[in-house]
Amino acid sequence: MAREDLHFRLRIPEEIKARIEQAASLNERSMTAEIISRLQWTLGPADEEFQELQGKLEESTDQVRELTWKVGFLEKDIALRREQLREEIQKGEVLRGDLAKEAGRGEAFKSAIEIMARAMEWSNGAASREILEVIEKLQPDQHGEK
């Protein structure tokens, strides 16, 4: 407290004085500082402080709006990317199935050639026409289907 501050006598009940002394002691300040602090809290901020706080509140509100917009944008972007990823996974599953089919056809074709080679050894070429027909049935046509 500066010496230029206003000095005046105040009559208060002894019980209130005791409470102020106790609060000042707990807050580690003088009774005068305790009374001034409580009056300032009760009266609220001065006009200049209020204007400053209101400006900060408006600034914070603008920041919250901007962040809310950004979060909404990011949520939409994530949803779109999630859908694109699902589509890519589905395409991958289809390709995996197609690859498995082709691998199975390749194995069947390889087995048919082996059978034909053995049959030619056994029959000296007599059953080759029948074997070739079986192989032709196993070969994929020009569109990749049996």
How does this model look, in words?
With 146 residues, this protein is mostly helical. It is 78% helix and 0% strand. The protein has helices at residues 14-26, 31-43, 47-123, 128-138. Helix 1 (14-26) crosses helix 2 and helix 3 runs antiparallel to helix 4. The protein is rod-shaped and about 135 Å long. The chain starts with 13 loop residues before the first helix and ends in an 8-residue tail after the last helix. The mean pLDDT is 82.
Jot down its keywords.
single chain, 146 residues, mainly alpha, 4 helices, 0% strand
The low-confidence parts are: none
What share of the residues does DSSP label as strand, in percent?
Answer: under 5%
Distance between the termini: 100 Å
The tally of strands reads 0
Number of contiguous helices:
4
**Mean pLDDT over the full residue set:** 82
Radius of gyration (CA) equals: 45 Å
Q: In this structure, how is the largest beta sheet organized?
A: none
Fold blueprint:
Blueprint: H1 14-26, H2 31-43, H3 47-123, H4 128-138
Structure in a nutshell:
With 146 residues, the chain is mainly alpha-helical.
